[in-house]
């Protein structure tokens, strides 16, 4: 414990050497602690503002789940997680000075040991010198004679030379002995004026605690422009608990701790004004973050609506496809039916898959092609004879003209009836006859091709 207490005692003693006042040393000590914890207090204030911003949502959840407290707790915890808020962060910052207060209490309770470096043997010698009795070193004996040691410094040093180097500390502040404990019934004390001054320290400490809370609310409402009456339950509890706690501490402990608590309330109010620019920046970022989450929620809702529309469209297309397939299946079933058998020709039967054409006799087609060739040859011969007619007349005077070879007139062919007028009742060839006709057509084509080549030669 001495490892923790000694640095605090050295710091208070350093401030006393600078100022020469025990009360001012305690106030400076409180200021140093407040500066060290400034980031932590600022974080607590931010958490408080975040909790205040959720007051409306908390009220809505409370109304919605008024009959189901378990569900309300679950939804409230979910809300805290979504907003990134810790419910305990808004009130814990108020209790941070307590550990330092406890350390300071141990230092103040034994000022001769930690501030002046007097051990138990030296303490026994001092008490025997001043009071004629040995007092309790571990109890409140050091507080009882702390101011007497200052007033009888020369006498003590003369009687105990080894204490010549001990620090000289005046434990009074504004005429009040801070090593004494205030009494609530101050009028029953011997020195009523001194007792009343000590009685004012706890009262002032509790009053400053309430004022500090009111200043905080005023800054929230008028400077940070947060809603009025947005204090959550933790803030309201702090406004009641902290002043009462301060009042109890200051009436049960030495007045030096009351001075420390008064300084803590004063510096708390100053820190609230110092926090204003940081809290404004925090609220601005919080508003931007809230707007960003709102836009993201709108985008997610738009995407969900788009996905639902696409799903509906796909469902409609799928229904249309199924309907078309059903209609197609019905048409296939009707086309594939044979008597009572619905799919006699197959479930995928399509009557238009392989289109059919009217039958044409290949022999007739070959004859027509031959007639066309003869007509073209005759036209070519007539054109050639007209060109050589003049030359033949000149040659007829010298030599008699040779008799022209007899040419057979082409047989008159009757035009075939058109395909559309072909009677439907024509006998169909059997598969064997069709094979024979196909062989005949192939042989006739070959013979006609050979004759045509011989004529050209």
Termini gap = 136 Å
- Helix fraction, binned, reads 55-70%
Over all CA atoms, what is the radius of gyration?
60 Å
The shape, in one word, is rod-shaped
Structure, described:
Helix content is about 70%, strand content about 0%. It is mainly α. Among the domains are: about 1-115 and about 170-275, no CATH class; about 120-170, no CATH class. A two-stranded antiparallel sheet has the order 1-2. The longest helix is centred in the last third of the chain and has 60 residues, at about 275-335. The N and C termini lie far apart (about 135 Å). Mean pLDDT is about 75; it is low at about 395-445.
Topology:
Blueprint: H1 2-19, H2 22-36, H3 38-53, H4 55-64, H5 69-83, H6 89-92, H7 97-109, H8 111-114, H9 120-131, H10 141-151, H11 153-159, E1 172-173, E2 176-177, H12 192-223, H13 233-252, H14 255-274, H15 276-335, H16 362-387, H17 389-395, H18 431-456
Antiparallel strand pairs: 1-2
Helix pairs in contact: 1-2, 1-7, 2-14, 3-15, 4-5, 7-14, 9-10, 12-13, 12-14, 13-14, 16-18
Explain briefly what this protein structure is.
Helices cover 69% and strands 1% of the residues. It is mainly α.
List keywords for this structure.
457 residues; mainly alpha; 18 helices
